[in-house]
Amino acid sequence: MKSRKRIVLAYSGGLDTSIILKWLQENYNAEVICYTADIGQEINRKKIISNAKKFGVKNIIIKDLKDIFIKDYVFPMIRGHAVYEGVYLLGTSIARPLIAKDQIRIAKKYKAYAVSHGATGKGNDQIRFELGYHYFGPKIKIIAPWRIWKFKSRTDLINYAKKNGIPVPKDKKGAPPFSIDDNLFHTSTEGKVLENPKNFAPEFIYQRTISPEKAPDKPTFLSINFRSGDPIEVNKKKLPPAKLLEKLNQLAGKNGIGRVDLVENRFLGIKSRGIYETPGGTLLIHAHRAIETVTLDKETMHKKENIMSRYAELIYNGYWYSKERFKLQKIVDLKKNKVNGTVKLKLYKGNITIVSRQTKSSAYSQKKVSFEENKTFNKSNVEKFINFHKKKLRS
User: Fold this and answer.
1) Which of 28, 214, 268, 340 has its Cα between 20 and 30 A from that of 34?
2) pLDDT of residue 372
3) Is 352 found in the same domain as 269?
């Protein structure tokens, strides 16, 4: 008997991907394999497995990728100080390339002919997933339900779910939920009242940060130690990548740090509004920039600063595996071996203050910068320096 063809679905166990699972079974003569990447999101393994089994799924794969996600995706991005449109730390954007890569690995392992995802037809994630699929499995078919099915609205989806016994969750106010994406690095919330930019974001949607007004009245002090550009210790305790970020999330979140309310420009040209929470990541990018100021030379720092916007845009647009991003990463990491030392931070009611920077690097010279007279800096050369640049004004 000839075996059925297989499709690997990126499956969360939630409403949208459960609908997609059923829809794939109804519309394709293929076995659906459910794949979940555990990258630190709120995950209920029993629910994922039970929901998939309701529809006869035999292969349900849940892969723990938390340390890989932070070490090989988030940390390189932090080293590049990647911030999209001035404020967005790219928490959703950076997760998709890893999920796509591992989903293709599963597809090849099970000899699946296709992969599928739950990204909507107007969003960025469909691009990020599919560019990753193409990079690692260019011959594997891609099924994007949101672009091809006949459902016209959220109401259609909910009716389909009810018809097929798929539970429809409610938010804290008893209505259908916001669109939420979360992982160890961040949480994003979109839709409903947030779609009108004049509306104030309700406090109940925040999941991992408290409001600055309710944060402790006493500041929190912490230290982050860096080695070769990556954080390795918090408060002198060495931690693996995922545990380190968990600790920073907890410390920042309870001090009301890491909230962003952004109207962004999607890759497809649509403007959308989202609420992002990136507590630990906000601490990391502040601390990393601080340690670089005393460990890297001016030319290297400015070269990195000049590419930061483009580097962030490539990640946002789904080009993590592009030649251009690889090239920019080499610039980002050119002297990362020199980025060693400790930054001490003060956290207080939504604010981050750099308290101290400690390093054995010789990039910063206290003797040269001191207002006390010394012989390490020849001031007589300054006039020649100015005269040279006077000529360049008119060149």
Assistant:
1) 268
2) 58
3) yes
